[in-house]
Hints:
By secondary structure, this protein is an alpha/beta fold. The protein has two domains: 15-249, 3-Layer(aba) Sandwich (Aspartate Aminotransferase, domain 2); 251-318 and 354-373, Aspartate Aminotransferase, domain 1 (Alpha-Beta Complex). Helix content is 39%, strand content 12%. The protein has helices spanning 15-24, 33-46, 57-67, 84-91, 114-117, 137-147, 201-208, 214-218, 238-249, 251-276, 301-313, 329-333, 342-348, 362-373; strands at 50-54, 75-79, 96-100, 122-125, 152-154, 162-163, 166-167, 174-178, 191-195, 287-288, 295-297, 351-353. The chain has a four-stranded mixed beta sheet with strand order 1-9-8-5. Strands 3-2-4 form a three-stranded parallel beta sheet, covered by helices on one side. Helix 4 links the parallel strand 2 and strand 3 (96-100). It binds pyridoxal-5'-phosphate. Residues 56-58, 82-83, 85-86, 128, 154, 156-157, 178, 180, 191 line the site of pyridoxal-5'-phosphate. Pyridoxal-5'-phosphate (PLP) binds at residues 56-58, 82-83, 85-86, 128, 154, 156-157, 178, 180, 191.
Amino acid sequence: MPLIPFNRPHTVGTEFGYISEAIAAMHISGDGRFTQRCSGFLEELLDVPRALLTTSCTHALEMSALLLDIQPGDEVVLPSFTFVSTANAFVLRGAKPVFADIRPDTLNMDERGLERLLSPRTKAIVPVHYAGIGCEMDAILKTAKKAGVPVVEDNAHGFLGKYRGKYLGTFGALSALSFHETKNFSCGEGGALLVNDPRYLERAEIIREKGTDRSKFFRGEVDKYTWQDLGSSYLPSDILAAFLFAQFEAKETIHAERRRVWEYYHSRLRDWAGRNGVSLPFVPEHCTPSYFMYYLVLPSPESRKALIRHLAEREIQGVFHYLPLHLSPMGRKFGGKEGNCPVTEGISERLLRLPFFIDLNESDLGRIVEGIVEFSP
Length: 377
Ligand SMILES: *Cc1c(COP(=O)(O)O)cnc(C)c1O
């Protein structure tokens, strides 16, 4: 039996044509025609003031830290159950990460414990829409507003997901998207910074262009460009933007296909999960998922290990996900200890991600589900 991998990148077929076009236009550095088309696509779809393509979501988060003027000693509140970049982007500026626990149902930052984590040094709150299911943004924004702290959404998972009918990534002052190979829409390595609060527009362009006002120069707004501020090189090549634009144009198909995979698992595993004390992703009524991933939470770490082995024997690759950041070697340097985020600690060692990519056909999905339901934890 052929191996069903955990992930396989998807191409829509029009990528090569667009890449050739980018090359023929002789503009293969950043901010060429395809970059503009990608930005325009995101701005129109999400109805945001500015969408700047970046070299990664990590870099969009680093830009956020620069935009918010994060200084040594500042604190940034973020979930412990996330990818390292959510923390590192701010730690690079000298910030101390303050780790929030997650809700046991959605596995998102628990908004109920948020206020308690804020201090006069808090400079940002960074929610992550885990698995592309929205955080409780009403409550998070209310707490943030009361404290006068900006929200930066790490929306690496949630592109096209919605919260109360509004796209994820449009709630924070800033938000970061990922177009890494493992994400729903991809160009291999890439990302975007959504600038939702217009007060950050001017500096965002400068920071992205090595600290210069080159973007203004290209638009003819200044007659020369020079060093204005801190900055780095966060522009992807137009070749990557060409690849990404092909995927954007296939938005409906990509979204529908991911939904198909998600719903296959969700409908076929419900009974088995109910009988065996396994939890499946929970989608609050007011949320629409981005269909980024599908996971199971097993009753114990041992049963997760046993299920991974059981699936591996059937040539099916199930994997685990984030290790709690507060218990990582780096997290411990910031005071992380066992018991700080009990829900995160409990879930992290019991969660199993199932293979999830568009080219999974009915027979692959059937094989995976059969393999799972013949296992009892
Ligand atoms: C993938 C991911 C990132 C990093 O994305 P890159 O584009 O690879 O930099 C950041 N945060 C979360 C939650 C992610 O899943």
